[in-house]
């Protein structure tokens, strides 16, 4: 398995950009391999590998905010899935990264890969798996993404150091691509500003590959491309979840003029989404700045004209947030190419607060709806019972790939981790089907 066979892989055959700021160490792969076609950069190969991966395709069947295939009682909501979100995040990140001097293929790869490790039923499933895996290192979608990219997704195998046995090295992406996809560059319990945080980026048995990809990086610091990915993720999901809420008829923009509704928005934003120390008055100012824009959707009836106006509003919001970050970063660091650890992405506080407002609106009017809580409660039952059934009957119920990993696991925590890997790989529908086969028919 990745992380157990080689600690100092040599450089790739060529740099990603011979005329740019990336060097040969950025293009290293854990397992060296020759180029298939001359002329492609290492980062173009990375992008292609993620784009063609089964893990990316599975995101089409994983919850973003509402269950894939859900339909509004008023009109077709066509809600985002994890896949459409990842594609939209990649488009935002590619353009923002290119404007700041990053290799666009590198940033797009990170954006495409950032949600690969998320389990069925979104953050709901993530919470259940974290509880189930508490005694084998916990579960975190971003740590699972690294595990998938470097270990689980079958693309490349390499001989393990010391034994010569062939083991999976996942997609075998470059160091720079793996680093760019690392949103939380620390293990569990080591977040510098909050050791109790549930957010982390690497499991204990994946530390070797993590140490390799982070070689030379400042501890706990995201590389510049990861910061672009992170902000692009925030922009994409805040804007598009707001759009989906309007399109599905869950959010009436006129409610934002009522004091009681506004107070709920302010409280949710301050509690969950705004930077620490934010006051409700700042959120009020952020909301009012958005309401004052001539393109803001003050009404929505599902007509073609309303849909076009809403689509324009989403474009305006994305441009507003990205241009704000681009301008502030350029003001701080100048006009040169900004890559790796040469700069920090500067996002103005006003933009972060406006983004927090949109997240709070989606939270209040979509996520916290009573019918959605009922759905989430049932999903938690499904994942809990499925995990228990797989753990009790494994290797029965595991896919062939995970059966082999289960048989090779050296101890009980490692076997439990394989069960978690299996569940995390499922789509919403396949989790329900496997639950029906293993639990309901017992």
TrEMBL record:
SUPFAM superfamilies on file: HD-domain/PDEase-like (SSF109604)
Compositional bias ranges of the Basic and acidic residues kind: 27-46
InterPro entries the UniProt entry points to: dGTPase, dGTPase-like, dNTPase_2, HD/PDEase_dom, HD_domain, PHydrolase_assoc_dom
Keyword annotations: Hydrolase
Superkingdom classification of source: Bacteria
Location of region: Disordered: 1-46
Statement: the UniProt record of this protein carries the keyword Hydrolase: yes
Name assigned to this protein: Deoxyguanosinetriphosphate triphosphohydrolase-like protein
Organism: Streptomyces meridianus
């Amino acid at each position: 398995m990745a992380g157990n066979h080689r600690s100092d892989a040599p450089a790739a055959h060529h740099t990603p950009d011979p005329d740019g700021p990336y060097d040969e160490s950025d293009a290293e792969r854990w397992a060296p391999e020759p180029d298939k076609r001359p002329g492609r950069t290492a980062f173009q190969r990375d992008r292609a590998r993620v784009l063609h991966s089964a893990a990316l395709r599975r995101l089409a069947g994983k919850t973003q905010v509402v269950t894939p295939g859900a339909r509004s009682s008023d009109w077709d909501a066509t809600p985002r899935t994890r896949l459409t979100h990842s594609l939209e995040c990649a488009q935002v990140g590619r353009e923002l990264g290119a404007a700041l001097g990053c290799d666009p293929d590198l940033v797009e790869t990170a954006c495409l890969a950032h949600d690969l490790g998320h389990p069925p039923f979104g953050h709901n499933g993530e919470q259940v798996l974290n509880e189930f895996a508490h005694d084998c290192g916990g579960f975190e979608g971003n740590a699972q993404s690294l595990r998938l990219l470097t270990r689980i997704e079958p693309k490349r195998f390499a001989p393990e150091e010391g034994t010569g046995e062939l083991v999976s090295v996942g997609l075998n992406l470059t160091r720079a691509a793996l680093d760019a996809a690392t949103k939380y560059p620390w293990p569990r319990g080591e977040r510098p500003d909050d050791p109790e945080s549930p957010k982390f980026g690497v499991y204990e048995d994946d530390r070797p590959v993590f140490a390799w990809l982070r070689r030379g990086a400042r501890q706990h610091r995201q590389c510049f491309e990861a910061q672009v990915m992170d902000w692009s993720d925030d922009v994409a999901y805040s804007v598009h979840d707001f759009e989906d809420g309007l399109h599905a008829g869950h959010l009436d923009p006129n409610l934002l003029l009522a004091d009681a509704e506004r107070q709920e928005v302010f409280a949710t934003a301050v509690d969950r989404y705004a930077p620490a120390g934010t006051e409700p008055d700042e959120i009020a100012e952020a909301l009012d700045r958005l309401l004052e824009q001539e393109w803001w959707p003050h009404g929505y009836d599902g007509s073609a004209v309303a849909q076009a106006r809403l689509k324009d509003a989403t474009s305006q919001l994305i441009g507003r947030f990205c241009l704000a970050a681009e301008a502030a970063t350029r003001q701080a660091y100048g006009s040169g190419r900004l890559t790796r650890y040469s700069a920090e992405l500067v996002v103005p506080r006003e933009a972060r607060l406006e983004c927090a407002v949109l997240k709070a609106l989606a939270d209040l009017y979509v996520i916290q709806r009573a019918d959605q809580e009922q759905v989430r409660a049932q999903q938690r039952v499904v994942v809990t019972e499925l995990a228990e059934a797989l753990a009790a009957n494994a290797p029965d119920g595991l896919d062939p790939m995970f059966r082999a990993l289960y048989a090779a696991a050296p101890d009980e925590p490692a076997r439990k981790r394989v069960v978690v890997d299996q569940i995390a790989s499922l789509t919403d529908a396949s989790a329900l089907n496997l639950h029906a086969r293993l639990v309901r028919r017992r």
